[in-house]
Amino acid sequence: MMTIARYRVAGARSFSTASGVSTVGVIGLGLMGHGIAQAAAEKGYKVVAVELEERFLQGGLKRIGDSVKKITSKAVEKGKMDKAVGDAHIASTMARITATTDRGALASCDVIIEAVIENLQLKQTLYGEIGRVVKDSCIIASNTSSLSIGTMAGYCGRPAQMIGLHFFNPVQMMKLVEVVRTDQTDPKIFARAMEFSRSLDKTPVECIDTPGFIVNRLLVPYLTSAMLLVERGVATPADVDTAMKLGAGHPMGPMALADYVGLDTCLSIIGGWQSAFPDEPAFKVPESLRAKVAAGKLGRKTGEGFWKWDGDKLAA
C-alpha cells in the first residue's frame, strides 16, 4: 500500500530559482539519495522523496534528520549559528520534505534525481514509469557514477530531458557535481541543470556521456593500477599508499581509498566497464580485487580489505 508522510511546521517556505525549479524529486533515500534530498531541502526547495517501501522511507528520513541535526549542532557549538535559529533550520528543512511510496507524486516535480542501486534492469522499469509521469519541462537526472546516461534516456523515452547529476559522498559536504549530457540532451535542460547545481552551493562541471564521466574515469583505473602494481610485487600496499601520499600529495593512498570506497563497488564498476569495452586496456580487473570480494573482505565496510579498519579509520 502506498503511503505519504508529510512534515510541516509554521513558517516553512518553498524556494525557486531562475532555473524554474521549485520542487525536487529524489528517488531512493539511501547513502546518496538522502544526502541529495537534504541538500535540496536545506536550500529551500520542496522535496518529494520516493522509496519503494515504507521501511526504506522511514530509514531515509531518519538519516536526513540525524544529519541535519548533527551539522546544525556543530554550527551552534562553534558559534556560527544561534540555537534558536538552528532549531528553526532543522524544523524547516524537514518541513519541506514530502515522503511517499507513490511515484505518481513525481508529476509535480521540476527536477527528478534518481539515486537507486546501479542495476540497469531495475532502472529500465523505473525510467519507463518516470517517462510516463513527468511533465515536459522536468529535468530528469540520474546520480549514477558509472552507467550510461544515454541508455537510461532510452528507457524513459524522453532523451531531450535526460542528464546525469553525479553528486559525491557525503553530498552534504562535497562541493562537486558532474553534470552529464548526451547528444540528445536539450541545451536548455542542461543549462537549467547547471544553474540548479549552483543553487545547492555546489560547483558543477560539464561532461559528455562517457564511462565514469570525469572523476571515476580517472580514479577507478588509478585504483586498479595500484592493485596490479602490488600483484606484480613492485611494492606493498602500505608503501604504495605512502608513496602517493608523500610523493603526489594525495590525502589518502590508492589502496586505502579503494577500501574506503568499497572493493565490491570497485569491482562492480571496473568489471562492468571491462565487459562493455573489452579492448580498453585501462579496464583490467585485478585478480587480487576479485579474491578480496569473493572472500567478503570489502574494505572499510567489513573491517578488512587491503588494509584493516577500525570503523572509518585505518586500524593501528
Automatic annotation (TrEMBL):
CoA binds at S67, K78, S145. Its EC number is 1.1.1.35. Pathway: Lipid metabolism; fatty acid beta-oxidation. It comes from the Eukaryota. The lineage of its organism: Eukaryota, Haptista, Haptophyta, Prymnesiophyceae, Prymnesiales. This is 3-hydroxyacyl-CoA dehydrogenase. Keywords: Fatty acid metabolism, Lipid metabolism, Mitochondrion, NAD, Oxidoreductase. Residues 212-309 form the 3-hydroxyacyl-CoA dehydrogenase C-terminal domain. It is found in: Mitochondrion matrix. It is an enzyme of class 1 (oxidoreductase). GO terms for biological process: fatty acid beta-oxidation. It catalyses: a (3S)-3-hydroxyacyl-CoA + NAD(+) = a 3-oxoacyl-CoA + NADH + H(+). Belongs to the 3-hydroxyacyl-CoA dehydrogenase family. It comes from Chrysochromulina tobinii. The record marks H166 as: Important for catalytic activity. GO terms for cellular component: mitochondrial matrix. InterPro entries: 3-OHacyl-CoA_DH, 3-OHacyl-CoA_DH_CS, 3-OHacyl-CoA_DH_NAD-bd, 3HC_DH_C, 6-PGluconate_DH-like_C_sf, 6PGD_dom2, Mito_3-hydroxyacyl-CoA_DH, NAD(P)-bd_dom_sf. GO terms for molecular function: (3S)-3-hydroxyacyl-CoA dehydrogenase (NAD+) activity; NAD+ binding. Residues 23-209 form the 3-hydroxyacyl-CoA dehydrogenase NAD binding domain.
